[in-house]
Amino acid sequence: MPQGEVKVYEGCNISDGAPCLPCQQSIKLEAQIVAAKEPALNNLLILRRDLRTEINHHHDPITRRLPPELTSRVFEICSKECGPYNSSDWEIPQYQSSTPLILGAVCQTWRHIAWSLPSLWTRICISLEAQMEDAYVDKVEGWLQRSGQLPLSMLIDLDFSSESTTRTNAGFRRIISIINQHSNHWQNLGIKCHPEQLRLICGDSRGAPILRNLSITGLGSSPGANYIFNSTMDAMKPRPSCVQLDDIHFKSVGIHWSDVTDIALIRSCIHLDECIELLQQTPQLVYCHIEGIDAAESEDWQDYVLPDQPVVLHGLQSLFLSHYEGEDIGMFFQSFTFPNLTHLQLANIDDEDISLWSSITSLTNRSSMCLTHLSIHYVDCDFETLMPILQNLPCMVNLNIKPSHHTDIQVHLLLSALANGFFLDTSGHYQTLFLPKLESICCWGCDSASWDSLFWQSISQLSGPWEDGELATGGRPIRSVSTYGNGDWELDVGSRICTDRNILLRLVKLSRSGVKFKLWSNNVDLLDASMKHHGMT
Predict the structure, then answer these.
(1) What percent of the chain has pLDDT over 70?
(2) Is the pLDDT of residue 102 over 90?
(3) Cβ neighbourhood burial of 307 (10 Å; 0-12, 13-18, 19+)
């Protein structure tokens, strides 16, 4: 449907009577349009648009049957823009961002209802260009005015070169002023811009007192000393709860960090000492995700950054650190205590002085944490290093290990330790002190020597020992086992399949009971290949 057109309800279809008056007028008008020429045609098209809104009013199945308050509720549900904020996904689909305008284009009655509902106008996407058209600026201004005093969710896109910022027109300056005038209503604010353009979104004298979720995406230039709020009054700085910065340095954002509970720094070019400094400023932190950590620039940074005693972050539950090269990463873990940490993810960390694991061991001992999820991807780690840490994590539920290319985690030793770590209690049930709550394990880098009968037997006994062909009572609540070979294409599948039929029968029984197995090597499902080898389906 062409932009600006009004979709009309189907015309009257009355077998024993004449169409309604607007439909009669529409039939006559269509005949005139077919025969008309410029410039009369333009006037007739305008008349047709107005007539269609009148037809919609006469045929409207909603407002003619429901009271205004129920129609308003239908509009709110239809727009889907009035729902609760979801910090993990608050993007506004393009078709939803124009929903209020579409509703208002149906007829005058709908327009009156939509225009009088502030809740329909609380989310908006604004695309800024150096040269702004007045019609677009008027649309944004009217939209924000109709939101009344309700909290706003705004996505602002300044996807043009920072050099063009100095060549803006009056329309651009006006729309920036309109955006800033509503800063006291900002609740969820997303900005995509060059770092130098951050200074434009500065709010007004009332600040942003209800800002809770802030997301800023940089457009590929080095951040300067520009701030989203550059007020010299600390009391005017916003206090968001959730902050996501992509390719923007955290010091380029002038906010109070003391109330932040969720941090996601992606491609942030943050230095190790700044990571420690940042976490010391966020006592309420619950979720922390940092990608891209550089070594500290100053040689004496430890003298003025490291705390005298480990800082306790009672609320931190999830920590993700990735892409670090250098020394001293262990200093980060030595600086804190995380008594309530449940999720720890480490990825692409090159620790040159091997201080990482000793510091994590000290952290787990010091924190008495109940870590349930541990993920290690592309980090130097061997079996001897990992075992003491795992033995101190009795709450572990999910374990995911993908070692760096030049280390061998010796998965067969880990699986053997899990399989052989059971004992009989006084009631005759099997128990284990080694990862007793483990439900899911995923290991990469299984070397070719691992795929032997002992390896397969260990997998079959992760849940517990077998007695008379049945799994013994007690044991671990294993629900998922994944192992992936090292991609040695020189070895055929036959050297890795399970040749012991009894062990294979155990695995099949576990699979049918709900345990999910992904035992792959060279893109071959070894469990499936083993079953075919033994003629099992």
Answers:
(1) 82
(2) no
(3) exposed
Output 126 or 195, whichever has higher pLDDT: 126
Q: Find the DSSP H helices in 345-460.
A: 356-367, 383-390, 411-419, 453-460
Nearest to 506 by CA among 485, 486, 478, 483: 478
Which helix (H) or strand (E) segment holds residue 344: the answer is strand 343-351
Q: What is the pLDDT of residue 431?
A: 80
CA max distance for the chain: 98
CA pair distance 43, 359, nearest whole angstrom? 78
The rounded distance, in Å, linking the Cα atoms of 328 and 302 is 10
- What radius of gyration, in Å, describes the C-alpha atoms of the chain? 32
Which of 53-62, 207-216, 402-411, 475-484 has the weakest average pLDDT?
53-62
- What is the C-alpha separation between 441 and 376, in angstroms, rounded? 12
Q: How many CB atoms lie within 10 A of CB 254?
A: 18
- Render pLDDT for 138-158 as a digit per residue (tens, 0 to 9): 999 999 999 999 999 999 998
Q: Which residues pair with 311 in a beta bridge?
A: 336
Tell me how far CA of residue 65 lies from CA of 19, 58, 73, 288, 412, in angstroms: 20, 12, 14, 51, 71
What does the alpha-carbon distance between residue 376 and residue 345 come to, in Å, rounded to a whole number?
6
SS3 content of the chain, % helix, strand, coil (to 5): 35, 20, 40
Nearest to 447 by CA among 480, 407, 418: 407
In 248-331, beta strands by DSSP E = 262-266, 270-271, 287-294, 311-312, 318-326
Instruction: Please report, as a single letter, which amino acid is at residue 130.
Output: A
**Location of structure tokens 């908006």:** 124
Q: Indicate the pTM of the whole model.
A: 0.82
Q: How many helices (H) and strands (E) does the chain have?
A: 17, 22
Buried b (16+ CB within 10 A) or exposed e, 334-360: bbbbbeebbbbbbbbbebeeebbbebb
Buried b (16+ CB within 10 A) or exposed e, 189-200: bbbbbbbbbbbb
3-state class (DSSP) for residue 520: strand
Q: What's the rounded Cα separation, in Å, for the pair 408 and 451?
A: 15
pLDDT at 82: 45
